[in-house]
# Entry
Amino acid sequence: MKKTAILLVILQLFILGGNSLFAEGGIGRLKALGFSFPKSEMTPPPLTAYLNEEIVELTNQKRVTILYFWSSVIPPSMTDLTLLNKINDEFEEGEILIAPINLNEDRPQAYKAAAEAGLDLDIYLYPDPANLKAYILKSVPAAYILDKNGFLAASRQGNTPWDHPDIIRSLKELAASGP
# Structure
């Protein structure tokens, strides 16, 4: 009887949102760094952006995805991009997608800023920032971390210490979690 009750409690926690790695142990880690977490499973609206000349759907990648909204005229964006570029090497190819999405510059200007910063991340361009209302961009830079199923795991507005060990650890745990 006692074992059954314990199993039911564990199952309830799992069903009610305890299945997110960010819901319990990880939340303390990242909340202190300014991250916000959804109260329940939430799928962000589809987001397409240009990668070179190709339109790419970014919210259904079947891997951990960081949607990072930036502009080269905002210095914290460039600092964050350098850190995101650095942590990208911490992951196996295909394990995580770091998608820096430029909001307000044309292709040559965005690519020039990325080259000057020494980035080797793919740079995405968003054609019409006015259509991003669903993402509630209060400030730029802004980041949304999606799990492998496309659910929002965490978000952060403003400058972020991407190379912080707790962020890297949490991303690795999320990448290692089930589908």
Residues 1-24 have pLDDT under 50 and may be disordered.
